[in-house]
Amino acid sequence: MAKREKAGLTKLELQVMQVVWRRGASTVSEVQEGLKQELAYTTVQTMLNILERKGKLKRELQGRAYLYSAAVTEAKATSHAVRDLVERMFGGSSEELVMSLLKSRQIDAKKLAELGERMAKRLDEEESA
96-120 in b/e burial notation, b at 16+ Cβ within 10 A? Predict the structure, then answer.
C-alpha cells in the first residue's frame, strides 16, 4: 500500500506538477507564482521536496536556488492515475468505468459513439503504420 501512495499524487501535488509541466524547470518562487491559490513559500518548497523524494521531480542547484523539473511526463502521470482509479474503484474493469460515466450522465451515448469512431480510426491508423 505504501508503494501506491508513493506513486500517486495528492490534489496539491498535482497542482504543483501542473505548474512545472506548464512552465518547465522552475524555482520555488516561480512555482509559487504559478499556483492558482496563494501558498507560503515554505509550503511550496515542502511540496517540491516531497515530489522530488517520490521521484516525480528532479532538482538541480543553480546558484543559490534549486531548479525543479519534471521527472515524469504529464501523459505518464495521467495514465497511472487512470489505471489506479480503474483498479481501485472498478476492480480493474474499464467497462465498469464507462458504465459509471453513462449512469452518472458524465458522458452520453452520442459522445460514447463518437469516441468509438475515434478509437476505430486510431486503430486503423496504427495498423497502417
Answer: eeeeeeeeeeeeeeeeeeeeeeeee
Output the furthest CA–CA distance in the chain (Å, rounded): 56
Residue 7 binned pLDDT confidence (cut-offs 50, 70, 90): low
Bridge partners (DSSP) of residue 59 are: 68
The model's pLDDT over 78-103, given as tens digits with 9 standing for 90+, comes to 998 899 999 999 999 999 998 899 89
What is the DSSP-derived secondary structure letter of residue 26? B
Task: State how far the Cα of 97 lies from the Cα of 24, in Å rounded to an integer.
Answer: 33
Please state the pTM of the whole predicted model. 0.76
The boundaries of the domain holding residue 119 are 94-129
Question: Same structural domain for residues 11 and 60?
Answer: yes
Tell whether 25 and 66 lie within a shared domain.
Answer: yes
pLDDT at 61 over 90: yes
Residue 51 counted as domain residue: yes
Beta strand extents in the chain (DSSP E only): 57-62, 65-70
Q: 18 and 64 share a domain? A: yes
